[in-house]
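Usage

Read records sequentially. Each one opens with the input sequence:
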Amino acid sequence: MKLQRTTLILIILMLGLGGFVYFHEFYWKTQQEEIKNKKQQIFSFQADDVQSLAVKTKSATIILERNNNSERPKWRMTSPQQVPANDAIVSYLMDLLVKGESERTISSSVNQLGEFGLTPPQATVDIKLKNQQNHQLLLGKSDFNNRFLYAQIDPKPKPDGNVDVLLVSKDFGNAVNRELSEWQEIPNQGESTPLPSLNLPTPPKK
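and closes with the structure output:
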């Protein structure tokens, strides 16, 4: 009888220990990962705060300046050509910069940035605000699931010498990797072209 009681106590202790281990290893760590992996806003500025953008890809560098002297177009391309910019294309990129969120943040050593396609980056967006502050977005390659892009925001080492690498939407890649012609305003956009007149003979009067 005493042996059975001792066995029962041991079983209860083992169950209690197992529950503690489960709570610590699974539940607590899961909660910590959820907190760490919580989406965060990439930038804190607003669209109207931006004065200029410089979009650098492997094929070109596009410099866009806010057109303060006209309501339309809101943006002008100043390099490599000086022409009105396509407001819809610029607004698409601007929405991503203002509203975009990071899915997750990874702490990495500087020497590992090449594994994320960030040395050199696949594309760079330099942002100048009206208050003369500057921000930078570096875009790397896709993650192993091909769902997100690796990125850096205003890259600088942390006190421990590591850097933060973010996972951001692949829409950023679609927004910056464009042909030069796509950044330019389409002439007479939305206007219908008049049909040529046909010089038909006037029918005789009856």
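Summary fields computed downstream for this record:
- The first strand starts at residue 40 and ends at 41.
- The two ends are 127 Å apart (CA to CA).
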